[in-house]
Amino acid sequence: MNINNPQSVALPDQRQQRTYQSDFSKSPHTRAKPKPPVEEAITSWFSNLPPDLVEQTTSIITHLLSTAPKRWIVYPPMLLLPSGSFEDEQWRRLQLGGQELDSLWEKILELVGKREGKGKLTHLAINNGIPLLKVGEDKGENLLRNPTGLRILYGDFGPSLDHEAVPSREDLEKAFWVSTKQNGIIQIWAPRYTMFSRGNIKEKARILNFHKTEQQRRSRDASELMEDTAVDLYAGIGYFVFSYVKMGIGRVIGFELNPWSVEGLKRGALANGFSIQIVKSGQSWVPGEETITIFEEDNAEAPRRLSEQSPSFLASIRHINCGLLPSSQGSWEIALGLLTTTGWLHLHENVGVNDIELRRGTIRNELTRILSAKDVEVDVEHVELVKTFAPDVYHCVYDVYINRQ
Length: 405
Fold this sequence. Notes:
By secondary structure, this protein is an alpha/beta fold.
């Protein structure tokens, strides 16, 4: 892998979650830094426990404090603690009732809220990873990327529902929704039912500025972009859909199976002032003046749905995003069928650090094989290293330029 060539591979920036560390200045005239708020909350909570629980906890309080989470993410009014928080065996052995635990969670929310300065925090959960397989007897693939690993500690996150069931309008209204703003774009989701990928912020910004960077030698100007269409085959809550809109593309089409994600995308679009149409599976589609159209159905329907329009509509497609991990390869043939003119595929893959360049060649060969046309140029012109997915494994985006000569 050639990481010295900025046109070849872009390394991710080292963004970190906020971390507090207990420390004391060496100078006797300097005040010590405040304790991390979760540690301070545990100390305060411990001092107010009933005597029998204090006796049970005294011998291990130092250990409990040492294992307290020192980083977190806040999406007001929700606080998310990292995976593994409060799962140490000593915590498990404590015989605490709901009231004692609630008092601890309330204290954590109070003190972290004060430290962050983002208003009152009312919901607390542990943010475990999104499982690739379904939970329960059915071990099939978690196609909807449901956050079934979320461990709720405090607050009403909405009714407990079957993640596979289609939610009613009442279900959607009763759910707990949060929002954040990244790159000036609002995104909205329901944490109990929908994943949110915080680490994609850099890739969202890159797509947003795709035609403004010096590395993009095939840039399109604002008037051209207004005539273009982008397609996101895994739209989610609008991670990249909104970036394409802000880029200046005139129409963005998305496909998404998860109704909770579609609802979040709709709410996010309206919050950003974008016009949107939602087309349910089986419904007919009549394009209007809206900027965003989302099909709540399998992206296998994309060729049929989009080919129903005029040939000039298909010819307007210039960007296709294939954002499924660990590999988007299952959608490559669909994407190539939609890209009837010159344009870009953005292929998301998890790749071992030593295999990044090898994967580049594999992608080029596979796309060339699918196209089986001599008059088409396939150029994997850029590899973006978005973030580490696991030790020595990167979430990569391969920008593939398809030139139909």
